[in-house]
Write a structure and sequence with these properties.
Distance between the termini of chain C: 91 Å
CATH architecture of one domain in chain C: 3-Layer(bba) Sandwich
Largest sheet of chain C: 7 strands, mixed
InterPro entries (chain C): 2Fe-2S-bd_N (IPR042204), FAD/NAD-bd_sf (IPR036188), FAD/NAD-binding_dom (IPR023753), GcvT/YgfZ/DmdA (IPR028896), GcvT/YgfZ_C (IPR029043), GcvT_C (IPR013977), GCVT_N (IPR006222), Sarcosine_oxidase_asu (IPR006277)
CATH architecture of chain B: 2-Layer Sandwich
CATH topology of one domain in chain C: FAD/NAD(P)-binding domain
Protein name (chain C): Sarcosine oxidase subunit alpha family protein
Shape of chain B: globular
Organism (chain C): Paracoccus fontiphilus
Number of helices of chain C: 26
Keywords (chain C): Oxidoreductase
Oligomer: heterotrimer
Number of helices of chain B: 3
Order of helices and strands of chain B: EEEHEEEHH
Mean pLDDT of chain B: 93
Strand order of the largest sheet of chain B: 3-4-5-6
Number of strands of chain C: 47
Structural class of chain B: alpha+beta
Shape of chain C: elongated
Chains: A alpha+beta, B alpha+beta, C alpha+beta
Largest sheet of chain B: 4 strands, antiparallel
CATH class of chain B: Alpha Beta
Strand content of chain C: 25-35%
Largest interface: A-C, 46 and 47 residues
Helix content of chain C: 10-25%
Strand content of chain B: 25-35%
Family (chain C): Belongs to the GcvT family.
Amino acid sequence: MAEALATIARIEGLGMIAIRADLSRTGDAIAEAAGLAIPGVTRIVTNGSRSLGWMSPDELLLVLPVAELADTLTTLTDALSGEHALVVDVSDARAVFDVTGPHAADVIAKLMPVDLDDLPFDGLRRSRAAQTAAAVWRVPGGFRLIGFRSTADYLRLILENAAIPGSRLAPR
Amino acid sequence: MLILLCPYCGVKAEETELSPGGEAHLKRIGPDGTAEEFEAYLFARKNLKGVHFERWRHAYGCGKWFLAARDTHTMQVYGTYKAQTAHATDEIVANARQARPEWVPDWPQASEAVVG
Amino acid sequence: MSHTPPFRLPKGGRLIDRAFQLAFRFDGRHLRGVQGDTLASALLANGQMLMGRSFKYHRPRGPIASGAEEPNALLGLGQGGRFEPNQRASTTALEAGMVLRSQNCWPSLDADVGAINTWLSPLLPAGFYYKTFIHPRPFWKHLFEPIIRRSAGLGRAPSDPDPDRYEQAYAFAEVVVVGGGIAGLTAARDAADKGGRVIVLEQDPHWGGRTPTDHDGGQAAIDTLLEDLRGRDNVTLRRNTMATGLYDHGYLLAREALADHDLNQGIPRQRLWRIRAGHVITATGALERPLSFACNDVPGVMLASAVRDFIADYGVAPGKRIVVVTNNDDAYRTALVAHGAGLEVVAVIDARLRAKGDLPQAARAAGIRVMTGTAIAKVKGGRHVEGVALCEQAGAGRVTGSLDCDVVAMSGGWSPVVHLYSHCGGRLTWDEPEAMFRPDPARPPLGADGKAMVTVLGAANGDLRCAGDLERAEGATMPVWVMPHNAPYKLRAKMWLDFQNDVKVSDVELAAREGYASVEHAKRYTTLGMATDQGKNSNINGLAVLSNALNQPLEATGTTTFRPPYTPLTLGTIAAEAKGDAFQPLRKTPIHDWHARNGASFEPVGHWRRPYSYPRAGEDRHAAVNREILAVRSGVGTLDASTLGKIVVKGPDAGRFLDMMYTNMMSTLPVGKCRYGLMCNENGFLMDDGVVARLSPDTWLCHTTTGGADRIHGHMEDWLQCEWWDWQVYTANLTEQYAQIAVAGPRARELLQRLPGTIDLKQEALPFMQWAEGELAGIPARLYRISFSGELSYEIAVPANRGLDLWETLHDTGRDLNITPYGTEAMHVMRAEKGFIMIGDETDGTVIPQDLGLHWAISKKKPDYIGKRAQARSFMKDGSRWQLVGLESLDGRVLPDGAYAVEPGVNANGQRKTQGRVTSSYHSPTLNRPIAMGLVRHGPARMGQVLDFPIPGGEAMKARIVDPVFYDKEGTRLNG
């Protein structure tokens, strides 16, 4: 039997903080508190174990090791005190999968209506995977896909189905 | 299946990533409205063949509502623009009039005001 | 093993490999084909011309085509869950061990009882369904319909689940070329030169379309193009991929066959491509038209192109003595190919008076007899062609001679394949000289940019000589719509237009006489073009006959609408991954697995699965519900309420915003307190409800119903973004961030106080409708003192990943209190005992809060809220609306949910007048009697009156109007 198209791995131990604010007013404060530059529209900035993704014109998502979550929540909240902003822990609301391997893009292309040729190396694309909301960005060797925790089993199932051996998208 | 450019995030989203919201530029009628005004606000829709302004939410993307000027017959998209806009931009109007010269916007045009 | 089937030619067949023999079965017979055969070529090689029966008259039928347009040779394929009806023999590749079955015949293909219909055909003209079976009325239901149903339908549906995998995939390209013939490949090369991504789709397993078969040097030309294209990074060449439909904005669906008949690989059988194309080039070629002469449906009458395909591509002789009949030069290629293969070409019957092109001359030079100005008066033979009677094309069918033959190769000219172009609004124009509809360059389908999104090239564009240098000069085609031109009715009643559906020239003429002048009406009246081939053969001929009957030019008649799919798609491909466990995203709470381990019986609530109840050994679902309710009312129970929507609303204008969202006042809610709120839409109707907690001066947390979380969050964002965008408010949907557990019952506090924690649970510290935050059993938690059960109750929110922790801790700690998990049904019954409304039960999108007696939750002070204006409309305020009451069954039976209360008289439709209906109805284990709520006209003013609720069987149950609060009217328990 041929190999699966990609390795599907659930990633645990990530903290996530949703930040809603007027980025033009508060960008510097957020960048300093998060320790990352503010990403451009539909981009994600990564440095070491932290990433800061652009979710919406007034929303960012900070992804970081869960051990740093509590302190960073406080730091961000303090940095934005006096501003109209919302900083909330959404770590438990998400399920994260890494799809890696030489044909990881095939797996994504079977599930998401996203032109991956158009996705820059630091692009973050919010869309859907089959019938559920998901966001995707590139990680070394493939893609990271996040969706809602309640649909984790569904996400794993459709990802593994899409990766079944012998189902590469290249013409036969 | 439509593709619309989200004016907030620049993503060319397909219809399955969007949710529709009906006719755009309705003026809300509150408790002071007359029965006729309120009826029109709730129910009277242009529903025309041709240039149409409509609401869409980039539901599976950035979550923002935006407006689209679309031709209900040819499916041509004259442009998309942010929801916090009183009416379509001059560029969109120009696009629509190029495709449908007989169409005129039903709001006062800055450029025409100058000419007139 | 070396046995060669009787009609396999000794040599030739560019697509087959004679070294690989394949055994298969057809209606039980053991036959042999070779690698590369289609089912049709393999059957023909074995002399099996009869492959099916027509739909209406059950006439014997053989294949007429060699491609996707084949109407007759439809077979049942496979066994069990892999059985598939209506597989086209002409496009299905033969595989070893295949089991084929003929369709639409009984008891057998050779001796079909339904063929009696052909003798009854004078009684079954066009529209006979509509004329015959109308009266007397009862006959339709009891006599005609059952008979028609039994004899209708083509093929059988498989009875077992499909065991195969299917998938879908998205692709994006600047240019998609449909059709891998010479026009398509040339266009792909030109498009690729511009640098964008190019995808080329070819329906067949091999490239080249007709060019390799029809032109010397054709294969070499195709190979050169393929070599060029394969060397380019921006080109994807995909065979076995049928473009089935083109939709708005360049959305193209295509079905790729991956392992259609090689199922042991475990890979997906088919894949549906969802392609977004910047521009689409259709180079889909053309289809040959049949000619309408009497008995043109006898097996052995085939399209001329099909005859030469079987000879040249598969090395199969459809027959040994061939008559070609044509109105154009192209069919002479068939005569030459057959002659070259050593078959006898009896004659070429050419309707034209002159045939002087290169091809006719070549035929004459080869010694083939050419008869111009001649027509076929009639085909002789029943189950197989035995010969043809000849006449003058210009005449009325007087027989001038006859020829013996076993195959008639006919060509009525070619029709461009314009389906994809037309799917999305491309318009056609009638090309009189070439006698065909072709794309009108002035009216193409438009894309999002308002420019043409489809370019049609090659034969599909009417350029039938698109092979360029490979072509020979051809003479003009002469339109021939019936043969002979002045054929009398007797002949026209035997000229088939639509072979599968048995529509004849006389049927279309009848439709025209009876007033079906619109082409769309005539189609439906006669069923012309409604077969699985969707008129690929019959369309143009039928339109021409209709036009002649109406005395109007073909252009005025127009065409019927071309709709996707081009060829049928299997449902498995459309469903793809969405089956079994992946049918829908199944949402699970963090405590889901515990529920499953502890015997929960689940029910769907939106995409969620929630425990309905937890039946124990020997208990059914309802016994479990009763036990759970009594346990909560007497001790303590836990409900997994994690699915409730939880939306944070924060900002300087959050209070003002929530005052608009809810009917009651939220801005005045003190920090630390909770308030039950109602949400309406602008129509005034109640759409959601839930408890709102004020977390801080600028932050509120809004609970929604389970099904309402995403919808209400979207509703809030809509108003914030589109109406009050200057208000400073942020929202976040935190539904999934928290697990929420309701701990309810008189011993709830006692249980929670056993857990280590930082929250003071005493009544004074945390009274009803307040919340507190702190640590509970080592978990950060927020406790809301709210109650949907009517008992002392806390809803505890903890981070989702700690939810199971808390749940298990509660159960460990409360074992001696008989702590009981309860499900949604117990929750529903308990809230009904308390007279609490449920969104979706007491509301249905037409109910306003005032109908439900919820005036206390509607602010009189606020100048405005969403729905306020609507609730002031005259019919919302008049007293005759149905209003909430309790209903007490008089005989101890539970009222059926949804039952209507009737009143004397009937309405305009002759139905009983109604005055109310049951909205919730249960057996209350607490009270040990039935309880119900309902909406009744003037209900609250009619306490004590008895209403009739008819139930199936003619009986009416009686119920008394009572107060909707059945249990603990004073509310002492939840305040306890």
